[in-house]
Amino acid sequence: MSYLDNIRTFVRIYDLGSMSAAARDQRVSPAVVSARVAQLEAHLGVRLFQRTTRSLSATEHGHLFYDGASAIIATVAAAEAAVGEATETPRGVLHVAAPLGLGRRLVAPALPGFLDRHPHVEVRLRLSDRRVDLAAEGLDAIFVLDRPEDSALRMRHIAECPRLLCASPAYLARAGHPRRGEEIAEGRHACLNLRFPGATEFRWELDGPDGPRRHRVTGRLESDDGDVLTDWALAGEGIVMKPVFEVARHLATGALVPVCEETPPQPVQLACLYVHRRHQDPKTRIFMDFMARHLAAAVRADAQLPR
């Protein structure tokens, strides 16, 4: 095992807070990760982590070493990127994240085509509807819907994704077919909501004759998984707000029907976030170029489906 591999492993453990998570991230066994840390501690003559059966935390020496170790890894990455820019041959591992619906419907299907063109690149895709910290989790890029709050990240706009409110025919037969946002506000309809940490109420912003208006909506069902909301809507449990690409196939078959057609939601922005560096890793840049073309085309195709 090289000293640089040991440093990389230490940094990933520190960032992820777990040896097992670092092992999965680096595609090695927990035993290899433990051995790398042991070699590094023996070389430095200090303990870098306090380990128990239930927790792991960096020692004071570990915190001190992390600053220099992460700088070393960043310097090596920048040097590799500089060489990559000269050769234009992307290689290495890309760590990418996306929300569940976006990842499953658009991102994942495009990846085999990218790998066919670039055989020296591996992609590790992480799907989650929770908010992801790009820098802390060692990601190269995150696909997002809507404008991010973190202004420190660079954003590449990909497409405007039309959205709509929809429900199943069974639900509409039971509860009525609302045409305007006012008809679903304040508990008049069961609304299915995506729950984020800290959310206390839900407001849907819909277009109107006087411009966008926010409507407070309620419902008995909510989840942090967007696909669960779609399943509930299909089962007749209420109204859901979705980008068209997530529900296009259900709209085409009639399993879901648009509602509030007179006051639709505004489009949501599909974008890719990444950390700006002096030497942008060529595999990240080439990956974003490829994905931007394919995702924009997929969004346009779904928006043209009859509904």
List keywords for this structure.
alpha/beta, 43% helix, 5-stranded mixed β-sheet, elongated, 14 strands, 307 residues
Report on this model:
The chain has 307 residues and is of the alpha/beta class. It has nine helices and 14 strands. It has helices spanning 3-16, 19-26, 30-44, 60-87, 100-117, 169-175, 226-234, 244-253, 282-303; strands at residues 49-51, 56-58, 92-98, 121-127, 141-145, 154-161, 163-167, 191-194, 202-206, 213-217, 222-223, 239-243, 257-259, 268-274. The strands form four sheets. Strands 4-3-5-14-6 form a five-stranded mixed beta sheet, covered by helices on one side. It is elongated, with a radius of gyration of 23 Å. The model has no long low-confidence stretch (mean pLDDT 85).
Oligomer: single chain
Dominant shape: elongated
User: Spatial order of the strands in the main sheet?
Assistant: 4-3-5-14-6
User: What's the helix count?
Assistant: 9
| Biggest pleated sheet | 5 strands, mixed
Would you tell me the structural class of the helices and strands?
Answer: alpha/beta
How many beta-strand runs?
Answer: 14
User: What percent strand?
Assistant: 15-25%
Distance between the termini: 58 Å
Radius of gyration over C-alpha positions, nearest whole angstrom: 23 Å
User: What sequence of helices (H) and strands (E) makes up the elements?
Assistant: HHHEEHEHEEEEHEEEEHEHEEH
**Arithmetic mean pLDDT:** 85
The helix content is 40-55%
